[in-house]
Amino acid sequence: MRSYQIAVIGAGITGLTQALWLQRQGHQISLFERGGERLDHHCSHVGAGMLAPYCELSEAEDAVAHWGAAALKRWQAVTPTLALPVHMTCEGTLVVAHHRDRAGMQHLAERVTHAGFGAHRQWLQRDALRELEPELEGRFAEGLYFAPEGEIDPRSLLPALVETLRQNGAQLNFMTEVEHLAPGEITLRGERHAFDWVLDCRGLAAREQMSDLRGVRGEIITLRTREVHLRRPIRMMHPRYPLYIVPRPDHRFVVGATSLESDSLRPATVRSTLELLSAAYALHPAFAEAEIVEMNTQCRPALPDHLPRIVQHDTLLRINGLYRHGYLLSPLLAEAVAAFIGEQRRPAATAKLWQSSGPATGGGRA
Ligand SMILES: Cc1cc2nc3c(=O)[nH]c(=O)nc-3n(C[C@H](O)[C@H](O)[C@H](O)COP(=O)(O)OP(=O)(O)OC[C@H]3O[C@@H](n4cnc5c(N)ncnc54)[C@H](O)[C@@H]3O)c2cc1C
């Protein structure tokens, strides 16, 4: 197979997975990121890293569950091969609801069955709930358990991807803004540089070129306490958006996330903070004494159908619209692009993601 020179623009989860998959196919990767190597400025830094293909069916279409289940297996295979350790668990997701929100849980169960994934969900009554999460004993009469789901910690995954790329010879350019990108070339500080392929993974910054891309604001809080011992992500049904609590190393718990039609990056509001913290407290009163270690706001890059998209303009590919599913789906998009560049084929399972846009007109200011 021919080895290509490939420029990847953007070191979010989309760009980093694209870069890794292509590097492992033997291509030469140059990564360009306008932010610093700490990678604490972008949407991917804030994402919760839930790998919950079936729970997502409360909002998403069936394809997301099919792709997400396949992608979760890719993460399981890839993370042990990375240059740094990555925190990833596959202990399932437990969904619970207070009495007034029970209809939402029932709806999710029906939706999952209707989509053909009924075998992956299990209703649990009090005793089984206690066995799974002893500290929730007596708080909920029943729960819905999705055993094959998992979570991955972006705070260990992103540095591990960067380090793996570096150790395997990728050229990493942080603090480097690409001014213009077009099929086969990018412009940096006024100078044009040629590549065999250019991958635009700029998230929301690509809005000028993808006019139907919009931001969906999410607020998320990290707590720390030694008093709570949850074993797996817990989702609580909520009338406006799915709320979840994800246990992480160092006694941290990620509590997220709001979902608001806005691209404002202003700090979290009182209302959202109250909702998130009330949910945590209602789940487990010991959260009352937890420390708030982080509060973050970011905007998810979303397309109208809430599905990701790969747009081809000759040798420029735009990979975007990961919305709520950057961690869940990025390995599958990376696999699709690697198959296309390496073997000129579009895998049937992800054919729906592609959009060709005719001749090489995909330029415009980056
Ligand atoms: C609160 C919240 C919770 C979430 N939870 C989950 C979850 O549990 N599971 C899940 O799967 N997903 C989750 N997501 C979604 C996920 O985080 C996003 O889908 C994902 O981060 C999008 O990644 P991206 O790489 O496309 O964009 P980004 O992370 O925004 O990366 C784009 C990068 O491109 C760089 N860039 C832009 N322009 C240029 C330029 N001209 N030159 C060089 N670099 C440039 C930017 O600096 C940035 O680093 C969540 C999102 C939010 C906000």
TrEMBL record:
GO terms for biological process: D-amino acid metabolic process; thiamine biosynthetic process; thiamine diphosphate biosynthetic process. Its cofactor is FAD. It catalyses: a D-alpha-amino acid + O2 + H2O = a 2-oxocarboxylate + H2O2 + NH4(+). Its EC number is 1.4.3.3. One of its GO terms (molecular function) is D-amino-acid oxidase activity. Signal peptide: none annotated. The keyword Oxidoreductase applies. SUPFAM superfamilies: FAD-linked reductases, C-terminal domain, FAD/NAD(P)-binding domain. Keywords: FAD, Flavoprotein, Oxidoreductase, Thiamine biosynthesis. It is an enzyme of class 1 (oxidoreductase). It holds the Pfam family DAO. It comes from the Bacteria. Residues 6-339 form the FAD dependent oxidoreductase domain. Pathway: Cofactor biosynthesis; thiamine diphosphate biosynthesis. Belongs to the DAMOX/DASOX family. PANTHER family: D-AMINO ACID OXIDASE (PTHR11530), D-ASPARTATE OXIDASE (PTHR11530:SF11). This is D-amino-acid oxidase. It comes from Candidatus Contendobacter odensis Run_B_J11.
